[in-house]
Amino acid sequence: MAVTKAAPRESVPDTPAARAPEGPRRLNSPLALTLLLVLMVVAQGSIRRVLSAPVMQSWMTVFVAVVVQALPFLVLGVLLSAAIAVFVPPSFFARALPKRPALAVPVAGMAGAVLPGCECASVPVAGALVRRGVTPAAALAFLLSAPAINPIVLTATAVAFPNNPEMVVARLVASLLVACAMGWLWQRLGRADWLRPPARAAYDGQSKGAAFWGSVRHDVMHAGGFLVVGAMAAATLKAVVPEEWLRMAAGNPVVSVLALAVLAVLLSICSEADAFVAASLSQFSLTARLAFLVVGPMVDLKLFAMQAGTFGRGFALRFAPATFVLAITGAVLTGAVLL
């Protein structure tokens, strides 16, 4: 029987032409930072002239103020989110909330009173609740109510309006009603594919301490980036909107409510500080200023960006406009009764 010999393998010379073609060189972070620093040094004169302009000074003031106000409460929310994800067993939420989603919504809305933070803190906490199996309707009610009815915010509102204590009650009632209404609306009309479950890095096999700090690092980097984007957008809009528009809008009851509602979205002020801004807008009616206080903690630029990053852009594009309309309606109805 003939034996067929295998053809000897040809040796491939190790030359640049024979090697596999390399992909395009990518711009890594250290190289990008170096190029940016070199560019800033070369163009420092032009940059100094641009930054000295009044518009840019206003932009930087608003941007820094939004970030500085929001960042501590964002960190607080991240810590609470990590604690919920790592240390709280999933069965706790099944026992704490009513079985029926329609009843879980108001319970979760009232539970928002225990979170001493702003809207930046409520987003990661709501994301952790969804990951833990809480019905999205209840988690969203918590997300909306927590920044507006917690003790710190209500105390700040009382201090800002010493001659109008009814503003505290009106803010509590209107915010809670809107949060519950949005939760029930999502329960009835919301679809599962509209809300992307928040991502969570896997920490299997790690200790609870390592998993906790890993979760904190993940959420700070994720939510912090969207906070910066939202703060930049708010600063840009604040720097170009003429102040004369506010004085013109205050004379019309309908326009004044809409103007302060839109202003709350654009300014993106944390709920711990928005009462003092509302109190300074004395040319507007109490109802219009109540709309500012109800809309701001539920719909603003940085909150929209953070919701889009946590739950998906499709969710934010549907949830934010509906919340905006319900917040204005709730503020007007509550103001007509209590103010």
Provide a compact summary of the structure:
Pfam families: ArsP_1. The protein is an all-alpha fold and 339 residues long.
Q: Measured on Cα atoms, how large is the radius of gyration?
A: 26 Å
Provide the number of structural domains. 1
Q: Multimeric state of these chains?
A: single chain
Give the end-to-end Cα distance, rounded to a whole number of Å: 106 Å
Secondary-structure element order, N to C: HHHHHHHHHHHHHHHH
* Beta content: under 5%
Number of helices: 16
Rough outline: globular
Q: Uncertain regions: pLDDT < 50 for 5+ in a row? A: none
State the secondary-structure class: mainly alpha
Which percent range fits the helix content?
A: over 70%
Mean pLDDT: 80
Please outline the major beta sheet.
Answer: none
Q: How many β strands by DSSP? A: 0
Protein topology:
Layout: H1 29-42, H2 44-51, H3 54-87, H4 90-96, H5 101-111, H6 119-131, H7 136-149, H8 151-160, H9 166-189, H10 208-240, H11 244-249, H12 253-267, H13 274-280, H14 286-295, H15 301-311, H16 313-338
Helix pairs in contact: 3-6, 3-10, 5-7, 5-9, 6-7, 6-15, 7-9, 8-9, 8-13, 9-14, 9-16, 10-15, 12-14, 13-14, 14-16, 15-16
What would you say this structure looks like, in words?
With 339 residues, the chain is mainly α. Helices cover 72% and strands 0% of the residues. The protein contains 16 helices and no strands. Helix 3 packs antiparallel against helix 10, helix 6 packs antiparallel against helix 7 and helix 15 crosses helix 16. It comes from Streptomyces cellulosae. Belongs to the UPF0718 family.
